[in-house]
Specification:
The complex is a heterodimer of chains A (about 120) and B (about 500). In chain A, about 55% of the residues are buried. Chain A has about 120 residues and is an alpha+beta fold. Chain A starts with a helix and ends in a 5-residue tail after the last helix. In chain A, a hairpin with a 5-residue loop joins strand 1 and strand 2. Chain B has a two-stranded antiparallel ribbon with strand order 1-2. The chains are: A alpha+beta (about 120), B mainly alpha (about 500).
């Protein structure tokens, strides 16, 4: 089980990778979205905002209205942000669930893939 | 916690173990019942519908095709029950992978899924062929112009998909409503303007073999094919129940409109017109003269909006996700700068073009209809099997929708759709013909060969790459030793 600090640390690393990736920033053109993250095992909730092709800092809670809701275990969130987990594998096995438009799901998956293409 | 870690965000007011409540109900953009209905009906009502309806007419006496359509509608209700239960259990775009994986050996599940994807290619190819041919006919042009039209249509569909253009829900609602309403009105006008009583409206077997009716029902099931694709939108709907309600309303609309066009076609069209690649244009002319012909040409073109939009998106995203999962070669997961999986989109376009051109040059669209009907019946039988297996394997999984008397209805689904699949695969235009069966067998063989021989290598390569990469996540620091009352460590104290 990953605690809030571990997820925050992983997210901070992922955020830098995403924001410094030119290709990813091109992919995010015009895609301003609010994404909620819900950890099933700890009950922790976070909000990620993408605005002007940049990822904002991780915010606690899920107060704003979301475009996309991602539900997974806290471990999966931490692994995902470190690039150690392929979210599609977990999605196709039903361990990660989503609520939102298919094109938004595609963009989010693209972020998780393109941010680690150099690995 | 280490000091150089970023500060964790303020905790949210949620307790561990609280189930997620942030579902589609709280989304900024979510699909309502109307869009679910239009998506389901629009995906099913492709341009191929007109040719399948005209083909069905040949199997029954006079104007009794509505009986075959109605029977097929009742059978489609069985499929609806199965898909509703499975979708409720797995409300995700990846549902087909999830419920098949849990019901059978994964290699078999993947083989069936890949074979089923063929249906999407067939429908896209058929729509390109029908729309291209209809436009060429209206303009008085030859087959070669139709072939150019087909290529242009598919190139347009590929280009718009690569640019990430998606038809908005509202536009789709309007397009589907127009197609269904205009088709129904044209069918009714054609019937009224014929000034003739219906022939054998209640005697489908008059001068026909009972096997012909079975074949007609199989084609009837094909009229509803793809209504279940809307289940891939399960993550986008405002209320989960909208999916099964929407599919039911869509089926009712499809039964009504398809019954009308089959009866109108059998009543007013000649055998030559029924066997043409554009029977709907002849129906339009019978109803409203030259204006009706143009109207139906426009309606045919609009059907392609749903097919090209829904078909390309559904298939390409599914291929992408399967490739990301590691079950298809990695190049199929390549994205362009608009986050569109361009390899599957281009591949679908090229394969659809080849199939459509072969059909245009050989005039073998009836084979396409038969293959589609057989594959659709097959997947319905598989869905019924999955319902039964999962009742035994996952009895405690929540089921927002439950198929009533599952042993009877599930068993009936396997048998009936199995028989319909076999029947449709060995007949073309009311004649015994093994070509559809050969086409399906080829598709299944290619899928099985890939799953059995190529997939293990694809998976091994992915595993090796993953192992070589190592983990980035820093190892978790050892848990602090609990301190005793005097600040002394308690662990290890004798």
């Amino acid at each position: 089980m990953a605690d809030r600090d571990e997820i925050a640390e992983a997210y901070a690393d992922w955020r830098i990778r995403c924001n410094e990736n030119d290709r990813l920033r091109r992919m995010l053109r015009g895609w301003d979205r609010v994404v909620h993250l819900v950890a099933t095992d700890t009950g922790d909730r976070f909000t990620v905002e993408v605005r002007d092709q940049m990822l904002a800092e991780l915010a606690g809670g899920t107060d704003a209205v979301a475009d996309l809701v991602v539900t997974a275990t806290s471990e999966d969130f931490a692994d995902l942000f470190w690039g150690d987990l392929n979210p599609s594998e977990k999605y196709m096995s039903g361990e990660i669930t989503l609520a939102g438009a298919q094109e938004d799901v595609m963009r989010l998956d693209a972020m998780s893939m393109v941010a680690f293409l150099d690995r | 916690m280490t000091a150089d870690r970023p500060a964790a965000p303020a905790p949210a007011a949620a307790a561990p173990g609280v189930p997620p409540t942030g579902g589609a109900a709280l989304l900024r953009r979510a699909l309502g019942l109307r869009t679910v209905v239009s998506t389901s009906a629009g995906l099913a009502f492709a341009a191929l519908e007109y040719l399948a309806a005209a083909g069905l007419v040949a199997y029954v006496a006079g104007d009794s095709a509505w009986i075959a359509v109605g029977t097929a509608g009742l059978l489609a209700l069985l499929a609806w029950g199965c898909f509703s239960e499975l979708n409720g259990m797995f409300p995700t775009a990846a549902a087909i992978r999830l419920y098949m994986k849990r019901s059978m050996d994964d290699r078999l599940a993947l083989t069936i899924t890949l074979t089923y994807l063929t249906t999407i290619v067939l429908v896209v190819a058929a729509d390109a062929f029908i729309v291209g041919t209809a436009i060429a006919h209206v303009l008085g042009q030859s087959t070669w112009v139709a072939a150019l039209m087909i290529a242009a249509l598919l190139a347009f569909a590929v280009a718009t998909n690569l640019r990430g253009v998606k038809v908005a829900g509202g536009v789709q609602d309007i397009a589907t409503s127009c197609v269904l309403a205009v088709t129904a009105v044209v069918a009714l006008l054609a019937l009224f303007r014929s000034h003739r009583a219906l022939r054998f409206p209640l005697s489908p077997l008059h001068g026909h073999h009972p096997g012909d009716l079975l074949e007609a029902v199989a084609l009837g099931v094909f009229l509803f094919s793809a209504f279940e694709w809307v289940t891939t939108s399960a993550e986008e709907v405002r209320r989960p129940r909208d999916i099964h309600r929407g599919m039911l309303i869509a089926l009712a609309l499809l039964v009504t409109v398809c019954s009308l066009i089959t009866v109108a076609m059998s009543h007013v069209l000649t055998h030559h017109q029924l066997a043409s690649a554009y029977p709907q244009l002849s129906l339009g002319r019978a109803a409203l003269g030259q204006a009706g012909l143009w109207l139906m040409a426009a309606v045919t073109a609009v059907t392609a909006v749903n097919t090209f939009n829904g078909g390309f998106i559904t298939a390409s995203r599914f291929i992408y996700a399967t490739a990301r999962e590691g079950s298809l070669p990695a190049p199929l997961a390549r994205l362009n700068d608009r986050a569109v999986p361009w390899v599957p989109v281009v591949a679908l376009g090229v394969i659809s073009l080849l199939v459509a051109l072969v059909v245009a040059l050989t005039g073998s669209w009836e084979v396409l209809v038969a293959v589609g009907a057989a594959l659709e019946a097959l997947i319905y039988a598989v869905a019924a099997y999955c319902v039964l297996r999962l009742r035994a394997r996952l009895p405690d999984q929540p089921r927002p929708f439950r198929l009533p008397i599952p042993r009877v209805l599930g068993g009936a689904g396997i048998v009936v759709f199995g028989i319909l699949a076999v029947t449709a695969s060995v007949s073309v235009a009311n004649k015994f013909d093994l070509v559809p069966l050969v086409v399906i067998a080829l598709g299944a063989s290619v899928s099985a060969a890939y799953v059995l021989f190529a997939l293990p290598r694809v998976q091994a390569a992915a595993e090796a790459k993953k192992a070589a990469r190592g983990r980035r996540r820093p190892p978790r620091p050892p848990a602090p030793t609990p301190a005793g009352p005097a600040g002394e460590p308690t662990a290890g104290v004798a």
